TrEMBL record:
Protein's name according to its UniProt entry: ATP-grasp domain-containing protein
InterPro entries, per database record: ATP-grasp (IPR011761), CARNS1 (IPR031046)
Matches recorded under PROSITE patterns: ATP_GRASP
ATP-grasp domain span: 549-751
Source species taxonomy: Bacteria, Bacillati, Cyanobacteriota, Cyanophyceae, Oscillatoriophycideae
A Pfam family assignment: ATP-grasp_4
Keywords assigned by UniProt, alphabetized: ATP-binding, Nucleotide-binding
UniProt key word Cell membrane: no
Organism encoding this protein: Floridaenema aerugineum BLCC-F46
Alphabetized SUPFAM superfamilies for the sequence: Glutathione synthetase ATP-binding domain-like
Length: 765
């Protein structure tokens, strides 16, 4: 078995596989992505392992998987598999305790192996049985591939989206399954009889407008029986039509396509076929992730077996395209690919409601020809291939470079994203405080992924109660000490024997309390002192001054310029040169009560107003609170920014910058916010690094945080660290702009799961 794998590794210039690794304990905090396939699928394994090492496995034997019944569902566990580390070293790994499979790509289907040896057919039958049992997310699936690999079905979908397709005659014994498709002038459906005569075939071919045409069956025999014909030799065309007819099963079709002339120039007999790879991203956004060019002779169909692989840049150079022409062509190809996958997704959603919800089409490969049409180059869709098409990419990588491309990375990210959803399913999350109505999306998401919510709140009529599996009415008001509240919550949890997997809050005022509860329950969280310090601008600034003077390396690491903060006790303490300044409540958030002060008289009046308000207001969310100090800070001119940080186990996973608009006169409150940031990349990196350094300085190690900063002529100044971020607009914007699901990552980190986030991704806007 390993000889085939080692041969594939050798062409990638990777080391041969090591035999059985030391048996491992399974780590349920890591995803487990499994490929049911033969052992030579190196490109996909390597792509996955570069992103998240030793979390993906090739499974070649059905005995490497165990099925366990858990309640009313069947759950698949991995016993052993072929994995890879980040350096490309393969291992044959055995797990001492079975590892729960979180995602499956099944390339071992009965349809794919029906012409192979009986032993492979039997293996495919067993893997397909596992597929029918699995409740974890899957890429495609036997029910979906029946449609994705149907060349007529996908052509009708594409034509309905105004995608260029060849003019087509489609002959079929049973055409009822295509009744959902609108009538299209480019594709004509013709009922087929098994007793069709030679003369009838000739009449159809004669009446078909194109002079040259292609005859092929719509099934897996298409590449083997496909022929290029012309009206010069209709006798041959009729014979090849009949050969294809003999290969058809009841649900298959026979296609007669217009021949698309894909010749690369007038001086040679070479044509180009493009393999366009398209990926489904989170939120059902689709993206063309790569294009490969195959060059072959025009006197026979161009396929992987009859061509050589090249880059799309090479083809554009051969076609002598200018940069503008090249970019226009690439844009057309990408839009074609995205339109086709969107049409498939929409059809699955509307019409394939019988397919289990854990299956969806995530990745396809399109065969596309380019030809002159209307005075310019236009891409034409020839056919669609299901996720098994990535083998063509492996051939390209082997032929051109020992290094892998990044074409599969987006697909791998989608696998991980769906894995993370599955890993949350059935876990128990203890939520401290329901928060205001803007937090409903956090609860809706938890319900959507199958989390069990144990809610602690003092309001039995709170909207979040309806999302909860269990609710406990505990008065956790702000005037009560955190320790007393934490002990009350822990007592209730233990009294009712509730297994808690993680603790979280969506209320900034409850962040210290939630960390205390988590520590008592031995769940992942920041320490209580750090969370408490982060709530106070004054304490945060003081903590930033207490670096280790004996460790200069440490000082350089955590250095971050905080805005200087003074606790205001007496107006006369402020020297004249300190104006203008900013006065605010120490615990205020979202610029509540922030005022720009120009003179001592103005400060004196505002100071009295603040003292009165502190004695009368009750803290609610971001308002001024009874236990808050009055502070003043220098006034800085510059661009203001919010930096959203995702940190797990002290590691910065990702950071995103939002530009804050102009402040209203005299009050330091932004009027607008912009994402993605319009400042240059270097400044964004400086802002993110400064924000992370600030969090590191006060020992915030786990969670999603928002840091307010201002970029001045003297560099980045940190204004405030929010020890928790729950702004619904930020959640929504990051998801729509960056494919970053903050709500998902908040929950994952609360459970001690470190998610992968692509720091180098580009915004969609």
């Amino acid at each position: 078995m390993l000889e085939i794998l080692n041969s594939a590794l050798q062409v990638y210039k990777l080391k041969p596989i090591k035999e059985y690794q030391t048996e491992q304990e399974s780590d349920e905090r890591k995803p487990c992505i499994v490929f049911f396939s033969e052992e030579d699928r190196v490109s996909l394994l390597w792509a996955t392992s570069k992103i998240l090492p030793e979390c993906a496995f090739i499974v070649t034997e059905p005995t490497w998987v165990r099925v366990e019944q858990e309640g009313n569902k069947s759950v698949l566990y991995l016993l052993e598999g072929i994995g890879m580390n980040e350096f490309g070293q393969c291992f044959h790994t055995k797990f001492t305790t079975p590892k729960k499979i979180t995602f499956i790509c099944n390339f071992y289907t009965e349809e794919s192996y029906k012409f192979d040896a009986p032993i492979l057919q039997e293996r495919a039958k067993k893997f397909q049985f596992y597929e029918t049992l699995a409740d974890c997310p899957m890429s495609s699936g036997i029910e979906l591939e029946e449609y994705t690999d149907d060349k007529l079905h996908t052509r009708l979908l594409a034509a309905a989206r105004d995608v260029n397709v060849p003019q087509t005659m489609a002959f079929g014994f049973s055409l009822e399954r295509y009744s959902h498709h609108p009538i299209n002038s480019k594709v004509k459906l013709i009922p087929l009889s098994k007793n069709i005569s030679d003369d009838e075939i000739r009449d159809y071919l004669t009446a078909f407008p194109p002079y040259r045409f292609v005859i092929k069956p719509s099934n897996l025999m298409g590449s083997m029986l496909c022929t290029i014909e012309s009206k010069d030799n209709l006798d041959r065309a009729v014979e090849n039509f009949k050969k294809c007819l003999d290969s058809l099963q009841d649900n298959d079709c026979l296609l007669v396509d217009e021949f698309i002339d894909s010749s690369i120039n007038d001086n040679c007999n070479l044509g180009a076929r493009l393999r366009v790879l398209v990926t489904r991203r989170p939120n059902n956004i689709v993206e063309t992730s790569g294009i490969i060019c195959n060059l072959g002779y025009l006197d026979k169909p161009i396929s992987g077996a009859t061509s050589k692989s090249f880059s799309i840049d090479y083809l554009c150079n051969v076609l002598q395209l200018t940069n503008d022409q090249k970019n226009q062509l690439l844009d057309k190809i990408k839009r074609l690919g995205e339109a086709v996958l969107k049409s498939i997704i929409d059809y699955e959603t509307q019409h394939l409601t019988h397919v289990p919800p854990n299956k969806q089409t995530d990745f396809i490969g399109l065969d596309v020809f380019v030809k002159q049409h209307g005075g310019q180059l236009e891409p034409f869709l020839i056919e669609v291939n299901s996720h098994n098409c990535e083998g063509n990419l492996q051939v390209y990588e082997v032929q051109h470079s020992p290094n892998r491309t990044d074409i599969l990375d987006k697909w791998v990210e989608t696998m991980l994203y769906r894995s993370y959803h599955y890993m949350l399913k059935g876990k128990n999350i203890l939520i401290i405080g329901g928060g205001d109505y803007s937090k409903r999306s956090d609860f809706e998401f938890a319900q959507q992924v199958g989390l069990n919510i144990i809610l602690i709140d003092g309001n039995p009529n709170h909207f979040a109660v309806s999302y909860s599996s269990q609710f406990f009415n505990i008065d956790i008001n702000f005037s009560t000490k955190d320790l007393k509240n934490a002990l009350a919550i822990v007592e209730v949890v233990r009294k009712h024997g509730i297994p808690v997997d993680g603790v979280i809050t969506f209320c900034e005022a409850y962040v210290p309390l939630s960390t205390l509860v988590a520590s008592f329950l031995e769940k992942p969280a920041n320490d209580y002192l750090s969370a408490s310090i982060a709530q106070s601008k004054f304490l945060t600034y003081k903590q930033s001054l207490s670096y280790n003077q004996d460790n200069l390396a440490y000082e350089d690491l955590v250095k971050s310029d905080f805005v200087e903060v003074f606790a205001l006790k007496d107006v006369t303490d402020i020297p004249p040169h300190y104006y203008p300044l900013v006065i605010q409540s120490d615990s205020g958030a979202c610029a509540s009560g922030v005022k720009v002060i120009q003179t001592e008289e103005e400060l004196r009046a505002k100071f009295e107003d603040y003292k009165t308000s502190l004695q009368t207001l009750t803290p609610q969310g971001d308002s001024v609170g009874v236990n808050s100090e009055i502070i003043v800070t220098p006034y800085f001119e510059g661009s203001q920014h919010d930096i959203t940080l995702i940190i797990s186990d002290g590691e910065l996973l990702a950071g995103y910058v939002t530009d804050k608009g102009l402040n209203t006169p005299d009050i330091s409150r932004e009027t607008t916010a912009i994402m993605p940031s319009s400042v240059d990349k270097e400044l964004q990196e400086n802002l993110v690094q400064s924000a992370w350094n600030a969090c590191h300085k006060i020992n915030l190690k786990d969670g999603v945080f928002q840091v307010e900063a201002i970029h001045t002529l003297l560099g980045v100044k940190i204004l405030k660290i929010h020890p928790h971020i729950s702004a619904s607009d930020v959640d929504e914007w990051l998801f729509n702009v960056w494919d970053v699901n903050l709500i998902l990552y908040k929950y994952l980190i609360a459970f001690g799961i470190k998610p992968f986030i692509n720091k180098s991704s580009l915004p969609r806007l």
